[in-house]
Amino acid sequence: MNKQDIQDVVYQVIERMQDSNQSSSEVPIGISARHCHLNKECLEELFGKGYELTSKAPLSQPGQFAANETVMIAGPRGSIEKVRILGPLRSVSQVEVSQTDAFQLGLKPPVRQSGHIEGSSPITIIGPKGSVYLDKGLIIAQAHIHMHPDDASYFNVKDKEVVAVGIDNGERKVTFEKTLIRVSEKYRLEMHIDTDEANSGAIKSGQYGHLKKVESTDV
Amino acid sequence: MNKQDIQDVVYQVIERMQDSNQSSSEVPIGISARHCHLNKECLEELFGKGYELTSKAPLSQPGQFAANETVMIAGPRGSIEKVRILGPLRSVSQVEVSQTDAFQLGLKPPVRQSGHIEGSSPITIIGPKGSVYLDKGLIIAQAHIHMHPDDASYFNVKDKEVVAVGIDNGERKVTFEKTLIRVSEKYRLEMHIDTDEANSGAIKSGQYGHLKKVESTDV
């Protein structure tokens, strides 16, 4: 072994030691592409009376799935095809896009947590059997971490708390300082960021971020 | 004035006091859209023998300009039209895109500082009079701050140091932890981020970021 080899090995060992020291704050990352949630009324307008979503693949959150069905969404400047519907159906329809998508549509959606669509952007959804104009429902999702109450107690955080999460892939390192904690018995530990956030840090799904408490916590 | 009004005023006053406290670390942000730098040989291949760039608008860095001329760039999966050429000409051609653009092109450029193109991605550039295949030259630009030596001494940083810059626009707050300092007599203080980084923080050109020293500094 030459000097360079030894240096490389030492470096790798130190890296692993650091990783294991930090493991207590590690959260797996999932990247959310643009998608929509529909209510029964919308689904039937778009796909026909009595239509039911079919599951293409389960999502990491228990009971949630990516449907085979996709729609087109449109705004005043442009449209985006093949936007995946996530199931199951909800009581309120909502479309989540990135800022990059929003430019393409010509719309200015606010950054919101899921379900908080009051005052959000209007959006047109086009399906194979009809189209729907929602006067609100288009948002950019706020970065958030789904977790079970056991995780919340482990990380010492509570529902709706805002934390910082740093993600380092070697080339880029970025910290999302307004990451919302969402706690439910139904959730499995995973941080969700959108494609802009992922690209800003050259982040891939399955990487880990490091959770850090911040001073002013509540939204 | 009711209680809510008074609370709002107090909040605004505190915000401004905090702003003025932090002004010592403030850096203006500029967002770089995809662009290319060409050498004389490339320019002539693309636009014809003896062609010279014409200035559309000066850039914030003294002597630099956005040219009227644009090119198309292409990779194995797709192409992007109207990529702006920045002048003046350089000795080495280089194309800078976002990760979002890289997906569209079907290429995997590394994150690099400008000029460091060894081992970067190949890229095809198409102009009105011809096209060029570069076997390297496509990069994603590392976030960086241009500054004059006077700024460097003011911020207590040196050329090639890596710092963190936090940018808060209210909705999103993101910190770019690997921001490269670049010092030159010719530079004017400005941080450059790409469109993915801007979108991840809902950041607009002209906003300010807060510079923070980090522990391990040199690249």
UniProtKB/TrEMBL annotation, chains A, B:
It comes from Pontibacillus yanchengensis. GO terms for molecular function: acyltransferase activity, transferring groups other than amino-acyl groups; metal ion binding. One of its GO terms (biological process) is 1,2-propanediol catabolic process. Belongs to the PduL family. This is Phosphate propanoyltransferase. Keywords: Acyltransferase, Metal-binding, Transferase, Zinc. Pathway: Polyol metabolism; 1,2-propanediol degradation. Its EC number is 2.3.1.222. It catalyses: propanoyl-CoA + phosphate = propanoyl phosphate + CoA. The keyword Cell cycle does not apply. The keyword Ribosomal protein does not apply. Involved in 1,2-propanediol (1,2-PD) degradation by catalyzing the conversion of propanoyl-CoA to propanoyl-phosphate. Its cofactor is Zn(2+).
